[in-house]
From TrEMBL:
PANTHER family cross-referenced by the UniProt entry: PHOSPHATIDYLCHOLINE:DIACYLGLYCEROL CHOLINEPHOSPHOTRANSFERASE 1-RELATED
Transmembrane segment boundaries: 12-36, 76-98, 105-122, 142-160
Entry superkingdom: Eukaryota
Residues in AtPDCT1/2 transmembrane domain copies: 54-212
Protein name: AtPDCT1/2 transmembrane domain-containing protein
Keywords recorded for this protein, A-Z: Membrane, Transmembrane, Transmembrane helix
PROSITE patterns referenced in this protein's UniProt entry, alphabetically: PROKAR_LIPOPROTEIN
GO terms of molecular function: diacylglycerol cholinephosphotransferase activity
InterPro entries: AtPDCT1_2_TM_dom, PDCT1/2-like
Length: 236
């Protein structure tokens, strides 16, 4: 009886180890769920009138203090960030009009459309310690606080397109610059952490939506009915 119980326990442990090796991600996510559920019920809510609690702001507070005391450096970094955004815009236009590939442009249009709706629906307060610059884009920080971050989402779309077209090194560089951009946006209080996280997810999602759109367009183009329309110029 005791030996059978031991064998059963050992078999169960072996099965658990096999599952852990075969599916580590679900196990990790399950552990994370338990941890964050505990945090959810133990962390106090932010009361009205207080500044929002942001972990990214806390982690970059020393960078914020340094940039606040060096406004010239803050403006230089803003100019570099604006140049990075302009590069992304130029890349999307190049792929559309020169390479004749519309997926990045469609993804950008999806992204900014969703951002307009969400940004209008939820307008977060401007952080008191925001470090603005006349060299930021958009001008006068007109939409910096729309939820979510278009800077991050656009960078993700461009990086994914570069990797898809086998320009992996360029995609990695854009991804790295996106990380630096995110650090700057947090340090200058230009976006909340949630803006950046959702921006990255939105960029990924909009790229895939653009891919689905292309697939649907190709199916319509290749359908027999469409061929008949192209041949005869009329619907049958």
């Amino acid at each position: 009886m005791g030996r059978a119980l031991i064998n059963s326990v050992m078999a169960t442990l072996a099965s658990m180890m096999a599952f852990l090796q075969a599916c580590p991600l679900p196990v990790f996510l399950g552990i994370a769920l338990v941890v964050f559920m505990k945090l959810e019920y133990t962390v106090d809510m932010v009361i009205p009138g207080m500044e929002p609690r942001d972990l990214g702001f806390h982690c970059t507070r020393w960078v914020h203090r340094y940039l606040a005391s060096h406004p010239l450096l803050n403006s230089i970094l803003a100019a570099c960030n604006t140049a990075f955004v302009m590069f992304q815009m130029a890349y999307v236009l190049w792929t559309l009009f020169v390479d004749r590939r519309k997926r990045p442009a469609v993804a950008i249009l999806f992204m900014y459309t969703f951002r307009a709706f969400l940004g209008y629906a939820t307008q977060l307060p401007v952080p008191q310690d925001f470090l603005g610059s006349g060299l930021d884009f958009p001008v006068n920080n007109a939409s910096f606080f729309l939820f979510f971050s278009g800077h991050v989402a656009g960078s993700v779309i461009v990086s994914m397109d570069m990797r898809r077209t086998h320009h992996h090194d360029c995609g990695s560089v854009v991804g790295f610059l996106n990380l630096l951009q995110s650090l700057r946006l947090l340090a200058t209080r230009g976006h909340y952490s949630i803006d950046l996280a959702v921006g990255a997810g939105a960029g990924w999602a909009c790229d895939h939506l653009a891919g689905k759109y292309e697939e649907i367009q190709q199916k319509v183009k290749d359908s027999p009915q469409d061929s008949s329309i192209a041949k005869n110029g009329v619907l049958r």
